[in-house]
Amino acid sequence: MRKRLLGSVAAALLISGAAQATQLITEEEAKLPPPKGAVAADRRGIMRGPKVEFVSPGDTVSSPMRLQVKFESFGGAKIDPDTVKVFFLRTPNVDLTPRVKPFVHADGINMQDAELPPGEYMVRVDIKDSDGRPGTASFTLKIAPR
Length: 146
Hints:
single chain, alpha+beta, Immunoglobulin-like, five-stranded mixed sheet, four-stranded antiparallel sheet, 3 helices, 9 strands, disordered N terminus
């Protein structure tokens, strides 16, 4: 009886560990049509606004993946975590901000287990610093088939 109870506890821990992954993009959202028209690219020139940098885990990764984005501010300004917005670029765009919000800090986003279906997903992150200057970055997440 005790072995069976310990086995059940171990199985429950394994299942709860797997349940820790956070759904970043759902199967239904992945099927939405791609954005119409051009997608805004990085701005060029001297900018005083904050920098947004996607830390790529590799060209193609499996799900769940670690979503890591770094923020850098300039001129003594601080990143305002409440201004962070994350979008999955589709028609219409999908606001991922509520799903990512628990993982947002002043220095970036650190989501250990982001769950996504296989495919390629264009994501945009927008932020502002304490002086109200905007920063943005777009990047593609490539998720390998399971």
